[in-house]
Amino acid sequence: MEAGVPSARSRALAVLRVRSRALAAALLPAALAVVLVTARATGRLSGEPWAAVTLVVCAVAALVLLLAGIFAAVVLRASPAVTPTVPLSEAAAPDLYRLVRDLAERMDVPPPSAIALTPDCDSWLEDRAHAAHRRGGIAGGPQSAPGAAPVLVIGSPFLWWMRVAELRAVLAPVVAGTGPSAHPDIADARGFVRGLDAAVDVGGRRGLGWVAAPARLLLRLCRTDAAEMERGVAAAASDRAQDVDYGLRIVAQEQVGLAYAGWDRLLTRVALPAWRMGRWPAHLDAGVVSALTELSRRDRLADGFTSRLGERPACDLLEQPGVIDEETSLLAARLFHGGPAEAGPDWSPVEWAAYPEEVVDRTWRAEAARLHAALDALAGPAVRPAGSAGPTGPHGSAGPAAPAGSASPAGAGSAASGGPAAAAGSAAPSGPSGAAGPATIEAAGAAHPIADGFAGPTLERVLDCLANASGDGALGEALAGRLSADLAREERAGGAAGKARGADAVPLFPLQPPRSGRDLLADHVTAMVCCAAVDSAGAAPGMDWLDGPVLLVDGDRRTDLAPRVLCLVEDGDPEPLREWLSALGVRTEEPVRLA
Length: 595
Fold this sequence. Notes:
Elements (H helix, E strand, L loop, with lengths): L4 H37 L6 H30 L8 E3 L5 H14 L6 E5 L4 E4 L4 H6 L14 E5 H6 L2 H12 L2 H4 L2 H22 L3 H32 L5 H31 L2 E3 L2 H15 L22 H17 L10 E3 L4 H24 L30 H9 L20 H10 L11 H10 L5 H27 L16 H21 L2 E5 L3 E6 L2 E2 L4 H10 L3 H10 L11
Parallel strand pairs: 2-4, 5-6
Antiparallel strand pairs: 1-2, 3-4, 7-8, 8-9
Protein backbone atom coordinates (compact mmCIF):
# COMPACT_ATOMS: atom_id res chain seq x y z
CA MET A 1 0.00 0.00 0.00
CA GLU A 2 1.35 3.42 -1.02
CA ALA A 3 2.37 5.91 1.60
CA GLY A 4 -0.38 8.36 2.24
CA VAL A 5 -3.34 6.10 1.44
CA PRO A 6 -4.15 5.18 5.07
CA SER A 7 -3.87 8.82 6.07
CA ALA A 8 -6.10 9.92 3.19
CA ARG A 9 -8.74 7.32 4.07
CA SER A 10 -8.74 8.22 7.76
CA ARG A 11 -9.06 11.91 6.92
CA ALA A 12 -11.90 11.12 4.52
CA LEU A 13 -13.71 9.31 7.30
CA ALA A 14 -13.20 12.36 9.54
CA VAL A 15 -14.85 14.54 6.87
CA LEU A 16 -17.73 12.11 6.60
CA ARG A 17 -18.14 12.17 10.39
CA VAL A 18 -18.79 15.91 10.14
CA ARG A 19 -21.56 15.10 7.68
CA SER A 20 -22.96 12.44 10.00
CA ARG A 21 -22.94 14.81 12.98
CA ALA A 22 -24.71 17.49 10.97
CA LEU A 23 -27.36 14.94 10.01
CA ALA A 24 -27.72 13.83 13.62
CA ALA A 25 -28.14 17.43 14.76
CA ALA A 26 -30.90 17.93 12.18
CA LEU A 27 -32.69 14.74 13.30
CA LEU A 28 -32.37 15.39 17.02
CA PRO A 29 -35.57 17.53 17.37
CA ALA A 30 -37.51 14.92 15.39
CA ALA A 31 -36.23 12.15 17.64
CA LEU A 32 -37.24 14.11 20.73
CA ALA A 33 -40.68 14.71 19.22
CA VAL A 34 -41.10 10.97 18.59
CA VAL A 35 -40.20 10.22 22.20
CA LEU A 36 -42.68 12.77 23.53
CA VAL A 37 -45.51 11.62 21.25
CA THR A 38 -44.89 7.98 22.17
CA ALA A 39 -44.84 8.80 25.86
CA ARG A 40 -48.07 10.75 25.54
CA ALA A 41 -49.71 7.93 23.62
CA THR A 42 -48.74 5.33 26.25
CA GLY A 43 -49.86 7.53 29.13
CA ARG A 44 -46.41 7.97 30.63
CA LEU A 45 -46.64 11.75 30.27
CA SER A 46 -50.00 13.23 31.13
CA GLY A 47 -51.19 16.61 32.20
CA GLU A 48 -51.50 20.04 30.67
CA PRO A 49 -47.82 21.12 30.51
CA TRP A 50 -46.73 18.06 28.52
CA ALA A 51 -49.35 18.58 25.84
CA ALA A 52 -48.07 22.08 25.12
CA VAL A 53 -44.43 20.94 25.29
CA THR A 54 -45.12 18.10 22.86
CA LEU A 55 -46.84 20.48 20.43
CA VAL A 56 -43.95 22.97 20.50
CA VAL A 57 -41.31 20.26 20.06
CA CYS A 58 -43.23 18.75 17.13
CA ALA A 59 -43.49 22.16 15.47
CA VAL A 60 -39.77 22.85 15.95
CA ALA A 61 -38.91 19.37 14.64
CA ALA A 62 -41.04 19.89 11.54
CA LEU A 63 -39.42 23.26 10.85
CA VAL A 64 -35.90 21.90 11.38
CA LEU A 65 -36.61 18.93 9.10
CA LEU A 66 -37.99 21.25 6.42
CA LEU A 67 -34.96 23.55 6.55
CA ALA A 68 -32.56 20.60 6.70
CA GLY A 69 -34.27 19.04 3.69
CA ILE A 70 -33.97 22.24 1.70
CA PHE A 71 -30.33 22.62 2.74
CA ALA A 72 -29.57 19.03 1.76
CA ALA A 73 -31.29 19.52 -1.59
CA VAL A 74 -29.18 22.61 -2.26
CA VAL A 75 -25.98 20.76 -1.35
CA LEU A 76 -26.90 17.79 -3.53
CA ARG A 77 -28.20 19.77 -6.50
CA ALA A 78 -25.83 22.75 -6.51
CA SER A 79 -23.36 22.45 -9.35
CA PRO A 80 -19.72 22.49 -8.20
CA ALA A 81 -17.43 24.83 -10.07
CA VAL A 82 -15.99 23.46 -13.30
CA THR A 83 -12.75 24.89 -14.64
CA PRO A 84 -13.22 26.38 -18.14
CA THR A 85 -11.21 24.15 -20.45
CA VAL A 86 -10.97 23.10 -24.06
CA PRO A 87 -12.29 19.52 -24.35
CA LEU A 88 -10.02 17.17 -26.23
CA SER A 89 -11.75 14.18 -27.78
CA GLU A 90 -9.96 10.93 -28.44
CA ALA A 91 -10.38 11.47 -32.18
CA ALA A 92 -8.52 14.80 -31.86
CA ALA A 93 -5.60 13.30 -29.90
CA PRO A 94 -5.45 9.49 -30.21
CA ASP A 95 -1.73 9.35 -29.46
CA LEU A 96 -2.14 11.43 -26.29
CA TYR A 97 -4.97 9.20 -25.07
CA ARG A 98 -2.80 6.17 -25.81
CA LEU A 99 0.07 7.66 -23.79
CA VAL A 100 -2.19 8.38 -20.81
CA ARG A 101 -3.78 4.92 -20.90
CA ASP A 102 -0.35 3.33 -21.05
CA LEU A 103 0.66 5.30 -17.96
CA ALA A 104 -2.49 4.22 -16.11
CA GLU A 105 -1.98 0.57 -17.04
CA ARG A 106 1.65 0.64 -15.96
CA MET A 107 0.70 2.11 -12.57
CA ASP A 108 -2.37 -0.14 -12.23
CA VAL A 109 -4.86 2.72 -11.79
CA PRO A 110 -8.08 3.56 -13.68
CA PRO A 111 -7.42 5.74 -16.74
CA PRO A 112 -8.93 9.23 -16.75
CA SER A 113 -12.35 9.37 -18.36
CA ALA A 114 -11.36 12.24 -20.67
CA ILE A 115 -8.67 14.83 -21.38
CA ALA A 116 -9.05 18.61 -21.51
CA LEU A 117 -6.64 21.50 -21.98
CA THR A 118 -6.26 24.68 -19.92
CA PRO A 119 -4.27 27.80 -20.89
CA ASP A 120 -2.07 27.61 -17.81
CA CYS A 121 1.10 25.89 -16.65
CA ASP A 122 -0.50 23.24 -14.45
CA SER A 123 -2.12 19.81 -14.64
CA TRP A 124 -4.65 18.15 -12.37
CA LEU A 125 -7.57 15.73 -12.11
CA GLU A 126 -11.10 17.15 -12.00
CA ASP A 127 -14.25 15.22 -11.12
CA ARG A 128 -17.11 16.05 -13.48
CA ALA A 129 -19.44 13.19 -12.61
CA HIS A 130 -21.63 15.27 -10.29
CA ALA A 131 -25.33 14.81 -11.02
CA ALA A 132 -25.84 18.57 -11.17
CA HIS A 133 -23.46 18.74 -14.12
CA ARG A 134 -25.56 16.26 -16.06
CA ARG A 135 -28.79 18.10 -15.23
CA GLY A 136 -27.34 21.43 -16.27
CA GLY A 137 -25.74 20.10 -19.43
CA ILE A 138 -22.29 21.21 -18.24
CA ALA A 139 -20.67 17.83 -18.75
CA GLY A 140 -21.28 15.16 -21.32
CA GLY A 141 -19.76 11.92 -22.48
CA PRO A 142 -18.02 9.31 -20.36
CA GLN A 143 -16.73 11.81 -17.80
CA SER A 144 -20.29 12.60 -16.68
CA ALA A 145 -21.36 9.00 -16.03
CA PRO A 146 -22.02 8.16 -12.36
CA GLY A 147 -18.82 6.93 -10.74
CA ALA A 148 -16.69 7.91 -13.74
CA ALA A 149 -12.99 8.55 -13.31
CA PRO A 150 -11.93 12.21 -13.15
CA VAL A 151 -10.93 14.24 -16.19
CA LEU A 152 -7.23 14.87 -16.80
CA VAL A 153 -6.65 18.61 -17.33
CA ILE A 154 -3.32 19.43 -18.99
CA GLY A 155 -1.73 22.87 -19.31
CA SER A 156 -1.56 23.65 -23.03
CA PRO A 157 1.90 25.33 -22.84
CA PHE A 158 3.29 21.96 -21.74
CA LEU A 159 2.22 20.33 -24.99
CA TRP A 160 4.05 22.86 -27.16
CA TRP A 161 7.21 23.33 -25.09
CA MET A 162 7.80 19.86 -23.65
CA ARG A 163 9.00 16.82 -25.49
CA VAL A 164 6.86 13.66 -25.45
CA ALA A 165 9.04 11.89 -22.88
CA GLU A 166 9.04 14.98 -20.62
CA LEU A 167 5.25 15.28 -20.78
CA ARG A 168 4.91 11.61 -19.90
CA ALA A 169 7.14 12.07 -16.85
CA VAL A 170 5.19 15.14 -15.68
CA LEU A 171 1.80 13.45 -16.12
CA ALA A 172 2.73 10.23 -14.33
CA PRO A 173 2.04 11.41 -10.74
CA VAL A 174 -1.10 13.22 -11.90
CA VAL A 175 -2.57 10.16 -13.60
CA ALA A 176 -1.61 8.05 -10.57
CA GLY A 177 -4.10 10.12 -8.56
CA THR A 178 -7.02 8.27 -10.16
CA GLY A 179 -6.21 5.30 -7.90
CA PRO A 180 -6.89 6.91 -4.51
CA SER A 181 -9.72 8.93 -6.07
CA ALA A 182 -11.59 5.73 -6.81
CA HIS A 183 -11.84 4.80 -3.12
CA PRO A 184 -15.51 5.19 -2.04
CA ASP A 185 -14.76 7.06 1.20
CA ILE A 186 -12.44 9.54 -0.51
CA ALA A 187 -14.91 10.06 -3.36
CA ASP A 188 -17.78 10.65 -0.89
CA ALA A 189 -15.73 13.08 1.18
CA ARG A 190 -14.72 15.05 -1.90
CA GLY A 191 -18.29 15.16 -3.11
CA PHE A 192 -19.47 16.43 0.27
CA VAL A 193 -16.87 19.22 0.34
CA ARG A 194 -17.63 20.24 -3.26
CA GLY A 195 -21.34 20.31 -2.48
CA LEU A 196 -20.79 22.57 0.52
CA ASP A 197 -18.64 24.91 -1.54
CA ALA A 198 -21.31 25.08 -4.24
CA ALA A 199 -24.00 25.71 -1.59
CA VAL A 200 -22.02 28.68 -0.25
CA ASP A 201 -21.87 30.10 -3.78
CA VAL A 202 -25.61 29.55 -4.40
CA GLY A 203 -26.52 31.08 -1.04
CA GLY A 204 -24.36 34.12 -1.69
CA ARG A 205 -25.67 34.73 -5.22
CA ARG A 206 -29.35 34.28 -4.32
CA GLY A 207 -29.31 35.99 -0.95
CA LEU A 208 -29.98 32.78 0.99
CA GLY A 209 -27.89 33.53 4.04
CA TRP A 210 -29.49 30.74 6.06
CA VAL A 211 -28.12 28.30 3.47
CA ALA A 212 -24.67 29.83 3.08
CA ALA A 213 -24.05 30.21 6.85
CA PRO A 214 -24.34 26.50 7.84
CA ALA A 215 -22.43 25.52 4.70
CA ARG A 216 -19.53 27.79 5.73
CA LEU A 217 -19.67 26.36 9.26
CA LEU A 218 -19.44 22.79 7.97
CA LEU A 219 -16.60 23.76 5.64
CA ARG A 220 -14.67 25.23 8.58
CA LEU A 221 -15.23 22.08 10.61
CA CYS A 222 -13.86 19.78 7.91
CA ARG A 223 -11.29 22.13 6.32
CA THR A 224 -8.23 20.66 8.04
CA ASP A 225 -9.22 17.06 7.45
CA ALA A 226 -10.07 17.76 3.80
CA ALA A 227 -6.68 19.41 3.23
CA GLU A 228 -4.85 16.53 4.89
CA MET A 229 -6.87 14.08 2.81
CA GLU A 230 -5.71 15.77 -0.39
CA ARG A 231 -2.10 15.72 0.83
CA GLY A 232 -2.43 12.02 1.49
CA VAL A 233 -3.85 11.44 -1.98
CA ALA A 234 -0.97 13.40 -3.53
CA ALA A 235 1.57 11.45 -1.49
CA ALA A 236 0.01 8.17 -2.58
CA ALA A 237 0.02 9.21 -6.23
CA SER A 238 3.63 10.33 -6.05
CA ASP A 239 4.66 7.08 -4.40
CA ARG A 240 2.91 5.01 -7.06
CA ALA A 241 4.58 6.96 -9.86
CA GLN A 242 8.11 6.56 -8.47
CA ASP A 243 9.01 3.84 -10.95
CA VAL A 244 7.77 5.69 -14.02
CA ASP A 245 10.46 7.83 -15.69
CA TYR A 246 11.74 9.02 -12.32
CA GLY A 247 15.10 10.28 -13.62
CA LEU A 248 13.52 12.17 -16.48
CA ARG A 249 10.96 13.73 -14.13
CA ILE A 250 13.66 15.87 -12.49
CA VAL A 251 14.60 17.37 -15.85
CA ALA A 252 10.94 17.74 -16.79
CA GLN A 253 10.22 19.70 -13.61
CA GLU A 254 12.90 22.19 -14.65
CA GLN A 255 11.00 22.62 -17.90
CA VAL A 256 7.80 23.26 -15.91
CA GLY A 257 9.44 26.21 -14.14
CA LEU A 258 10.84 27.56 -17.38
CA ALA A 259 7.47 27.20 -19.11
CA TYR A 260 5.74 29.09 -16.32
CA ALA A 261 8.19 32.01 -16.57
CA GLY A 262 7.91 32.28 -20.34
CA TRP A 263 4.12 31.87 -20.34
CA ASP A 264 3.70 34.65 -17.79
CA ARG A 265 5.87 37.03 -19.82
CA LEU A 266 4.04 36.13 -23.03
CA LEU A 267 0.63 36.85 -21.49
CA THR A 268 1.46 40.07 -19.66
CA ARG A 269 3.84 41.66 -22.17
CA VAL A 270 2.61 40.36 -25.54
CA ALA A 271 -1.00 39.15 -25.32
CA LEU A 272 -2.35 41.84 -22.98
CA PRO A 273 -1.67 44.80 -25.36
CA ALA A 274 -3.47 42.88 -28.12
CA TRP A 275 -6.46 42.10 -25.89
CA ARG A 276 -6.77 45.77 -24.97
CA MET A 277 -7.03 46.58 -28.68
CA GLY A 278 -9.82 44.06 -29.25
CA ARG A 279 -7.51 41.49 -30.87
CA TRP A 280 -6.37 38.13 -29.52
CA PRO A 281 -3.22 36.29 -30.66
CA ALA A 282 -4.46 33.16 -32.38
CA HIS A 283 -1.49 30.94 -31.51
CA LEU A 284 -0.32 31.67 -27.99
CA ASP A 285 0.98 28.14 -27.45
CA ALA A 286 3.14 28.32 -30.55
CA GLY A 287 4.36 31.70 -29.35
CA VAL A 288 5.43 30.28 -26.01
CA VAL A 289 8.01 28.15 -27.83
CA SER A 290 9.57 31.28 -29.34
CA ALA A 291 9.36 33.10 -25.99
CA LEU A 292 11.01 30.26 -24.09
CA THR A 293 13.66 29.81 -26.77
CA GLU A 294 14.48 33.51 -26.43
CA LEU A 295 14.51 33.20 -22.64
CA SER A 296 16.88 30.24 -22.89
CA ARG A 297 19.15 32.24 -25.15
CA ARG A 298 19.28 35.22 -22.76
CA ASP A 299 19.58 33.24 -19.53
CA ARG A 300 22.91 31.48 -19.17
CA LEU A 301 21.34 29.20 -16.55
CA ALA A 302 19.13 27.81 -19.31
CA ASP A 303 22.01 26.83 -21.59
CA GLY A 304 21.34 23.51 -23.24
CA PHE A 305 17.55 23.68 -22.93
CA THR A 306 17.12 24.55 -26.59
CA SER A 307 19.07 21.44 -27.64
CA ARG A 308 15.98 19.42 -26.71
CA LEU A 309 14.02 21.10 -29.49
CA GLY A 310 15.26 18.48 -31.92
CA GLU A 311 13.23 15.83 -30.12
CA ARG A 312 9.56 15.18 -30.86
CA PRO A 313 7.32 17.89 -29.31
CA ALA A 314 4.32 16.79 -27.32
CA CYS A 315 1.98 18.79 -29.58
CA ASP A 316 2.63 16.13 -32.22
CA LEU A 317 0.30 13.95 -30.16
CA LEU A 318 -2.57 16.13 -31.43
CA GLU A 319 -4.16 15.62 -34.83
CA GLN A 320 -4.69 19.36 -35.49
CA PRO A 321 -2.43 21.34 -33.15
CA GLY A 322 -3.17 24.65 -34.89
CA VAL A 323 -6.93 24.34 -34.29
CA ILE A 324 -6.44 23.37 -30.65
CA ASP A 325 -3.98 26.24 -30.17
CA GLU A 326 -6.54 28.72 -31.49
CA GLU A 327 -9.24 27.40 -29.14
CA THR A 328 -6.99 27.59 -26.08
CA SER A 329 -5.81 31.08 -27.10
CA LEU A 330 -9.40 32.30 -27.21
CA LEU A 331 -10.05 30.71 -23.82
CA ALA A 332 -6.96 32.43 -22.40
CA ALA A 333 -8.32 35.80 -23.54
CA ARG A 334 -11.60 35.05 -21.78
CA LEU A 335 -9.99 33.92 -18.52
CA PHE A 336 -7.28 36.55 -18.21
CA HIS A 337 -8.94 39.54 -19.89
CA GLY A 338 -12.69 38.89 -19.82
CA GLY A 339 -13.07 38.77 -23.59
CA PRO A 340 -16.02 37.22 -25.43
CA ALA A 341 -16.24 33.46 -25.80
CA GLU A 342 -16.38 33.74 -29.60
CA ALA A 343 -14.62 35.83 -32.22
CA GLY A 344 -16.46 38.77 -33.76
CA PRO A 345 -15.97 42.01 -35.70
CA ASP A 346 -14.60 43.78 -32.60
CA TRP A 347 -12.82 40.71 -31.22
CA SER A 348 -10.80 39.16 -34.01
CA PRO A 349 -7.69 36.96 -34.03
CA VAL A 350 -4.30 38.27 -35.08
CA GLU A 351 -1.38 36.27 -36.44
CA TRP A 352 2.11 36.82 -35.09
CA ALA A 353 3.38 38.16 -38.43
CA ALA A 354 0.73 40.91 -38.37
CA TYR A 355 1.19 41.76 -34.69
CA PRO A 356 3.52 44.80 -35.16
CA GLU A 357 1.17 46.57 -37.58
CA GLU A 358 -2.18 45.39 -36.23
CA VAL A 359 -1.43 45.74 -32.52
CA VAL A 360 1.75 47.69 -31.79
CA ASP A 361 1.24 50.52 -34.28
CA ARG A 362 -2.49 50.81 -33.55
CA THR A 363 -1.84 50.87 -29.80
CA TRP A 364 0.72 53.63 -30.13
CA ARG A 365 -1.52 55.79 -32.29
CA ALA A 366 -4.58 55.25 -30.10
CA GLU A 367 -2.59 56.30 -27.02
CA ALA A 368 -1.13 59.29 -28.85
CA ALA A 369 -4.66 60.35 -29.82
CA ARG A 370 -5.83 59.97 -26.22
CA LEU A 371 -2.89 62.06 -25.01
CA HIS A 372 -3.73 64.93 -27.36
CA ALA A 373 -7.41 64.69 -26.47
CA ALA A 374 -6.40 65.12 -22.82
CA LEU A 375 -4.26 68.12 -23.75
CA ASP A 376 -7.24 69.59 -25.60
CA ALA A 377 -9.38 69.13 -22.51
CA LEU A 378 -6.90 71.04 -20.35
CA ALA A 379 -6.23 73.79 -22.93
CA GLY A 380 -9.19 76.12 -23.42
CA PRO A 381 -9.52 78.75 -26.18
CA ALA A 382 -8.88 81.50 -23.62
CA VAL A 383 -5.27 80.54 -23.12
CA ARG A 384 -4.39 80.29 -26.82
CA PRO A 385 -2.80 83.25 -28.55
CA ALA A 386 -5.30 85.40 -30.42
CA GLY A 387 -5.74 84.24 -33.98
CA SER A 388 -3.74 81.04 -33.43
CA ALA A 389 -4.89 77.88 -35.19
CA GLY A 390 -5.63 75.13 -32.73
CA PRO A 391 -6.79 71.57 -33.16
CA THR A 392 -10.37 72.60 -32.35
CA GLY A 393 -12.36 75.80 -32.63
CA PRO A 394 -14.02 77.72 -29.80
CA HIS A 395 -17.17 75.63 -30.05
CA GLY A 396 -15.48 72.27 -30.45
CA SER A 397 -15.63 72.33 -34.26
CA ALA A 398 -12.66 71.21 -36.27
CA GLY A 399 -10.07 73.89 -36.92
CA PRO A 400 -7.96 74.39 -40.02
CA ALA A 401 -7.16 71.23 -41.91
CA ALA A 402 -4.07 69.43 -40.73
CA PRO A 403 -1.34 68.46 -43.16
CA ALA A 404 -1.92 65.47 -45.40
CA GLY A 405 -1.69 62.17 -43.61
CA SER A 406 -2.56 63.61 -40.21
CA ALA A 407 -5.82 63.79 -38.31
CA SER A 408 -7.21 66.24 -35.79
CA PRO A 409 -6.60 65.03 -32.23
CA ALA A 410 -10.22 65.23 -31.18
CA GLY A 411 -11.45 63.24 -34.14
CA ALA A 412 -8.62 60.75 -33.92
CA GLY A 413 -9.18 60.33 -30.22
CA SER A 414 -12.82 59.42 -30.85
CA ALA A 415 -12.01 56.98 -33.60
CA ALA A 416 -9.06 55.32 -31.95
CA SER A 417 -10.51 54.90 -28.51
CA GLY A 418 -13.96 53.75 -29.52
CA GLY A 419 -15.71 56.57 -27.66
CA PRO A 420 -16.01 60.35 -27.69
CA ALA A 421 -12.82 62.19 -26.90
CA ALA A 422 -12.77 64.20 -23.72
CA ALA A 423 -14.06 67.62 -24.70
CA ALA A 424 -12.74 70.79 -23.07
CA GLY A 425 -14.15 71.16 -19.60
CA SER A 426 -15.82 67.72 -19.58
CA ALA A 427 -15.99 65.82 -16.32
CA ALA A 428 -15.22 62.16 -15.93
CA PRO A 429 -15.05 59.97 -12.86
CA SER A 430 -11.74 58.80 -11.58
CA GLY A 431 -10.31 55.56 -12.98
CA PRO A 432 -9.56 52.36 -11.13
CA SER A 433 -6.03 53.48 -10.40
CA GLY A 434 -7.22 56.04 -7.88
CA ALA A 435 -6.23 59.03 -10.01
CA ALA A 436 -7.52 62.51 -9.34
CA GLY A 437 -11.23 63.01 -9.72
CA PRO A 438 -13.00 65.50 -12.03
CA ALA A 439 -12.91 68.41 -9.59
CA THR A 440 -9.17 68.00 -9.00
CA ILE A 441 -8.47 67.71 -12.71
CA GLU A 442 -10.51 70.78 -13.61
CA ALA A 443 -9.02 72.83 -10.75
CA ALA A 444 -5.49 71.94 -11.76
CA GLY A 445 -6.24 72.70 -15.40
CA ALA A 446 -7.72 76.07 -14.50
CA ALA A 447 -4.85 76.99 -12.17
CA HIS A 448 -2.19 75.81 -14.62
CA PRO A 449 -3.62 76.18 -18.13
CA ILE A 450 -1.70 74.90 -21.12
CA ALA A 451 -0.60 77.82 -23.29
CA ASP A 452 -1.22 75.87 -26.47
CA GLY A 453 -0.43 77.47 -29.81
CA PHE A 454 0.35 74.35 -31.82
CA ALA A 455 -1.55 73.68 -35.02
CA GLY A 456 -1.63 69.91 -34.89
CA PRO A 457 -0.77 66.76 -32.96
CA THR A 458 2.99 67.21 -32.70
CA LEU A 459 5.55 65.77 -30.34
CA GLU A 460 6.82 69.29 -29.73
CA ARG A 461 3.47 70.13 -28.16
CA VAL A 462 3.90 67.31 -25.62
CA LEU A 463 7.52 68.19 -24.86
CA ASP A 464 6.66 71.85 -24.38
CA CYS A 465 3.70 71.09 -22.11
CA LEU A 466 5.58 68.74 -19.78
CA ALA A 467 8.73 70.87 -19.77
CA ASN A 468 6.73 73.94 -18.70
CA ALA A 469 5.36 71.88 -15.79
CA SER A 470 8.88 71.52 -14.36
CA GLY A 471 8.98 72.32 -10.67
CA ASP A 472 5.18 72.18 -10.28
CA GLY A 473 3.58 68.73 -10.53
CA ALA A 474 -0.02 69.96 -10.47
CA LEU A 475 -0.35 70.13 -14.27
CA GLY A 476 1.32 66.73 -14.73
CA GLU A 477 -1.06 65.27 -12.16
CA ALA A 478 -4.00 66.85 -13.94
CA LEU A 479 -2.90 65.35 -17.26
CA ALA A 480 -2.35 61.93 -15.67
CA GLY A 481 -5.76 62.14 -14.01
CA ARG A 482 -7.41 63.10 -17.30
CA LEU A 483 -5.84 60.12 -19.05
CA SER A 484 -6.98 57.79 -16.26
CA ALA A 485 -10.52 59.17 -16.40
CA ASP A 486 -10.71 58.91 -20.20
CA LEU A 487 -9.35 55.38 -20.18
CA ALA A 488 -11.74 54.33 -17.42
CA ARG A 489 -14.68 55.71 -19.39
CA GLU A 490 -13.57 53.87 -22.53
CA GLU A 491 -13.17 50.63 -20.58
CA ARG A 492 -16.65 50.98 -19.10
CA ALA A 493 -18.12 51.60 -22.54
CA GLY A 494 -16.17 48.69 -23.99
CA GLY A 495 -17.13 46.46 -21.07
CA ALA A 496 -20.81 47.21 -21.56
CA ALA A 497 -20.56 46.47 -25.27
CA GLY A 498 -18.53 43.32 -24.59
CA LYS A 499 -21.04 42.09 -22.04
CA ALA A 500 -23.76 42.49 -24.65
CA ARG A 501 -21.64 40.31 -26.97
CA GLY A 502 -21.20 37.62 -24.32
CA ALA A 503 -17.94 38.75 -22.74
CA ASP A 504 -17.33 38.26 -19.05
CA ALA A 505 -17.85 41.40 -16.97
CA VAL A 506 -14.42 40.93 -15.36
CA PRO A 507 -11.62 38.46 -16.03
CA LEU A 508 -11.60 35.38 -13.83
CA PHE A 509 -7.83 35.68 -13.36
CA PRO A 510 -6.67 39.27 -14.00
CA LEU A 511 -3.04 39.48 -15.03
CA GLN A 512 -2.11 42.92 -13.71
CA PRO A 513 -3.40 45.47 -11.20
CA PRO A 514 -4.72 48.79 -12.59
CA ARG A 515 -2.01 51.13 -13.80
CA SER A 516 -1.36 54.37 -11.91
CA GLY A 517 -1.88 57.77 -13.52
CA ARG A 518 1.87 58.39 -13.75
CA ASP A 519 2.43 55.05 -15.46
CA LEU A 520 -0.34 55.84 -17.93
CA LEU A 521 1.19 59.23 -18.70
CA ALA A 522 4.62 57.67 -19.30
CA ASP A 523 3.06 55.01 -21.56
CA HIS A 524 1.21 57.63 -23.60
CA VAL A 525 4.27 59.86 -23.98
CA THR A 526 6.29 56.81 -25.08
CA ALA A 527 3.60 55.98 -27.63
CA MET A 528 3.74 59.54 -28.97
CA VAL A 529 7.53 59.38 -29.29
CA CYS A 530 7.31 56.06 -31.12
CA CYS A 531 4.68 57.42 -33.54
CA ALA A 532 6.89 60.41 -34.30
CA ALA A 533 9.91 58.15 -34.85
CA VAL A 534 7.94 55.93 -37.23
CA ASP A 535 6.49 58.86 -39.20
CA SER A 536 9.59 61.06 -39.51
CA ALA A 537 12.68 58.93 -38.88
CA GLY A 538 12.01 55.63 -40.65
CA ALA A 539 11.61 53.59 -37.46
CA ALA A 540 9.18 50.66 -37.33
CA PRO A 541 6.96 48.94 -34.77
CA GLY A 542 8.18 45.54 -33.66
CA MET A 543 7.54 42.76 -31.18
CA ASP A 544 9.81 41.09 -28.67
CA TRP A 545 8.69 37.64 -27.50
CA LEU A 546 9.40 38.49 -23.87
CA ASP A 547 8.83 42.25 -23.69
CA GLY A 548 6.03 42.82 -26.19
CA PRO A 549 5.84 46.05 -28.27
CA VAL A 550 9.24 47.54 -29.12
CA LEU A 551 10.60 50.28 -31.38
CA LEU A 552 12.92 49.12 -34.15
CA VAL A 553 15.50 51.43 -35.71
CA ASP A 554 17.39 49.96 -38.67
CA GLY A 555 16.08 46.58 -37.55
CA ASP A 556 17.54 46.86 -34.04
CA ARG A 557 15.50 47.21 -30.88
CA ARG A 558 15.95 50.47 -28.97
CA THR A 559 15.94 49.89 -25.21
CA ASP A 560 17.15 53.33 -24.11
CA LEU A 561 13.91 55.28 -24.53
CA ALA A 562 12.17 54.51 -21.21
CA PRO A 563 14.59 56.35 -18.83
CA ARG A 564 14.48 59.49 -20.99
CA VAL A 565 10.68 59.51 -20.98
CA LEU A 566 10.73 59.16 -17.19
CA CYS A 567 13.03 62.18 -16.93
CA LEU A 568 10.44 64.20 -18.82
CA VAL A 569 7.40 62.87 -16.96
CA GLU A 570 8.85 62.77 -13.45
CA ASP A 571 11.23 65.75 -13.50
CA GLY A 572 10.00 67.89 -16.38
CA ASP A 573 13.45 67.64 -17.99
CA PRO A 574 13.13 67.22 -21.79
CA GLU A 575 16.84 67.50 -22.63
CA PRO A 576 17.77 63.77 -22.46
CA LEU A 577 14.77 62.93 -24.68
CA ARG A 578 15.51 65.80 -27.08
CA GLU A 579 19.10 64.59 -27.50
CA TRP A 580 17.82 61.06 -28.17
CA LEU A 581 15.32 62.35 -30.74
CA SER A 582 17.93 64.53 -32.42
CA ALA A 583 20.36 61.64 -32.75
CA LEU A 584 17.60 59.56 -34.30
CA GLY A 585 16.55 62.32 -36.70
CA VAL A 586 13.00 62.68 -35.37
CA ARG A 587 11.27 65.95 -36.34
CA THR A 588 9.29 66.95 -33.29
CA GLU A 589 7.44 69.78 -35.05
CA GLU A 590 5.95 67.49 -37.72
CA PRO A 591 2.31 66.45 -37.10
CA VAL A 592 1.88 62.78 -36.22
CA ARG A 593 -0.69 60.53 -37.85
CA LEU A 594 -3.09 59.43 -35.14
CA ALA A 595 -5.33 57.02 -37.05
